[in-house]
Automatic annotation (TrEMBL):
The protein's role, per its UniProt record: Methylates ribosomal protein L11.
Pfam family of the protein (one): PrmA
GO biological process terms, semicolon-separated: methylation
Species name: Caldithrix abyssi
Protein name: Ribosomal protein L11 methyltransferase
InterPro entries cross-referenced by the UniProt entry: Ribosomal_L11_MeTrfase_PrmA (IPR050078), Ribosomal_PrmA_MeTrfase (IPR004498), SAM-dependent_MTases_sf (IPR029063)
Family, as annotated: Belongs to the methyltransferase superfamily. PrmA family.
Amino acid sequence: MKKWLELELPAEAGWHDTVSAEMFALGCTGITEKEERLLAVFEDTDSRALIEAVASRIRRYRPDFEARAIKINIIPAENWNENWKAHFKPFRLGKHVVVRPDWESATLREGDIELIITPKMAFGTGHHETTRLILRLLEAYDLENKKVLDAGTGSGILAIYAARRGAAGVTAFDNDPEAMENAAENGLINGVQNNIRWLTGDIGVVPAEAYDLIVANINRNVLLEIAGKLSAYAARGGTLILSGLLLTDERTVLTAYRERGWRPCGREEEGEWLALKFKWQEGEK
């Protein structure tokens, strides 16, 4: 059975978001904050190489950081899942979205949308600031009869939300086969399996179609890498929402996307995290 590596590293409260972003950029699948430490989970790999890569990232901000300050534990997959079950309780995400695991019930208010997520290997339960930021922008967007592309879908939470809001068709992709298996399961639990097309791979697996809305909650490096490719899927006047960004990434990302025909038209921030909204300005598909 698949194993996971849990890295425990020091991170003072003011550095949590910055260090978290670097961990996600290295492929981290989930982070838990513990006062002045972070627990970051990675797929089983060369532990020495991973520790050095993590230390190198942290030295960008703390030049004196030493790799020996990082502790490492091996976690069997079933233990990780049981830990999530013990701590994942229903919670409110945005104004009208309630997220819960399938073994819990939730109290709903009038107008609420309930999303049921099975949190396998922390592919995105909605707890992170970046998901909350995208949801704030999406709640104000009319999704009825819109075509939606969800890049790096993880647990599928954003794709499922779009389908529940009446999107005409949703395409969601991720390069992690286990994440896609989890996302498809979540789509089935939420009754939207026929409204979402799940694709495994990078953006190249997406058919050449025009989308009214593109959402991508990934990380700065990947968002810069796929900036030109995302533009190829934009409908005229289409909307793009990006997250997985730190406030310090804003200028670089804005420049990259402006150069490819996107006009900034909105933003949300929480702590050190940022989401950006754009409108497509070029051509007609």
